[in-house]
Amino acid sequence: MMNLTIAEENYIKSIYKLEEEGQEAVSTNALAGELETKPASVTDMAKKLKEKKLISYEKYQGINLTPDGKKAALNIIRRHRLWECFLVDKLSFSWEEVHELAEELEHVRSEKLINRLSEFLGNPQIDPHGDPIPDAQGKMGKPRPQTPLDKARSKRLEVVAVSDKSTALLEFLNAKGIRLGTQLDVIERYEFDNSIELKIRNQPAFTISEQVSKNIMVKPI
Amino acid sequence: MMNLTIAEENYIKSIYKLEEEGQEAVSTNALAGELETKPASVTDMAKKLKEKKLISYEKYQGINLTPDGKKAALNIIRRHRLWECFLVDKLSFSWEEVHELAEELEHVRSEKLINRLSEFLGNPQIDPHGDPIPDAQGKMGKPRPQTPLDKARSKRLEVVAVSDKSTALLEFLNAKGIRLGTQLDVIERYEFDNSIELKIRNQPAFTISEQVSKNIMVKPI
DNA sequence: AATAAAGTTTAGGTAAATCTAAATAAATAA
DNA sequence: TTATTTATTTAGATTTACCTAAACTTTATT
């Protein structure tokens, strides 16, 4: 496998993420948004990644990972999620703190390190946010059936994952008492702004915005 | 504390090392050698680090760390050595494999991470090469009394550290059976090239070059 | 002390990853 | 279908961390 720079790895990871979220071809704009950079920068990098045969890309036609690109993406995701497990399981970090740290640790590229880390952790299958961890061959369990909260139909739900890992969101959820496995009751859905009123066990009800509800993945209970 | 780039951190670390080795003022050339870069690059970086008040530097006069620079250096060294402990103690890496990995891990800058890692490891005082680990305040135990093998006078010696951490050297030592705590008998010192003939317990004797013997730190036994 | 050798700095350049502003293509609306 | 809006690309700069080659200091040698 080729040697990628940190910037290249971050692009690959983001392209993978956007493809997963259902984008047929990932647009320059969407990728710029995801990476908090400018479209012009994305175009530059697209040329480079195409050169390295990690993506297919034609001017104005958007971006897709090649099989090689996908393999690279899964490897980066494996590293990221294993480090998250380490931070939570061994160093007692909480759920919402680990994403940015893992974002840095994931760029230490060593097969041996990551395989030993996995072993040390007992070869975990899912990370602290509920996402599956690809194995050394890049095989990853199907993410469990889940719906974003804004689309869920049932009244009684369980939180199975959070798709946006920004500290801001995770801290907000933490403050509200929402974490993996938390059970939620939907009190009301307000059409005018798609906000949702929720209740957890015996705590007072509270309201979350559509923006937030899109990022909370739930399953009926 | 200021935010340093990886390159800046590596310079700081190398300046610290050369000062420790006794250089009054660290020369451009020595630093270039240590970092495997060119003197002109060192001059460039020296200006930047002076700007940040991490070193004192005057044209042609060499480099020294300021108190701030030293604090930064000790912090980087702390991270490096704790990761080495982690790799050896928890992931069963061997002595000679960990240096380059720690070289990458050390650049993940997070007080919290490193303090938790230290705690997780039982707040170790020395790393797998026998070097002391600075504490969170940057206080570091005195390195134990030790002499480079090429300067040692006794015949019977114990290996307490290895100062050059290049994989090449560490692998060589490993192959010869030389590790921390190994006891050596000096059979002969050859003046013409300063090579040394050694023996370990009941193994056959072998010869090492001056270059190698300079990097093996020993104490009389 | 004069000169040669060694060490250091400057000047000018390169590659990676960004950016802004302007140009161009594609999608949408009138 | 033409015009307008939106998306994308190009052109040209910028910053960081390097580099080489030439100029300049310092140190060592004769």
TrEMBL record, chains A, B:
One of its GO terms (molecular function) is DNA binding. GO terms for cellular component: cytoplasm. The keyword Oxidoreductase does not apply. It is found in: Cytoplasm. Residues 124-150 are annotated as: Disordered. InterPro entries: DtxR_MntR_Metal-Reg, Fe-transptr_FeoA-like, Fe_dep_repressor, Fe_dep_repressor_sf, FeoA_core_dom, HTH_DTXR, Iron_dep_repressor, WH-like_DNA-bd_sf. Keywords: Activator, Cytoplasm, DNA-binding, Manganese, Repressor, Transcription, Transcription regulation. Residues 1-66 form the HTH dtxR-type domain. SUPFAM superfamilies: Iron-dependent repressor protein, dimerization domain, Winged helix' DNA-binding domain. Pfam families: Fe_dep_repr_C (PF02742), Fe_dep_repress (PF01325), FeoA (PF04023). Belongs to the DtxR/MntR family. In the presence of manganese, represses expression of mntH and mntS. Up-regulates expression of mntP. Homodimer. This is Transcriptional regulator MntR. It comes from Chitinophaga pinensis.
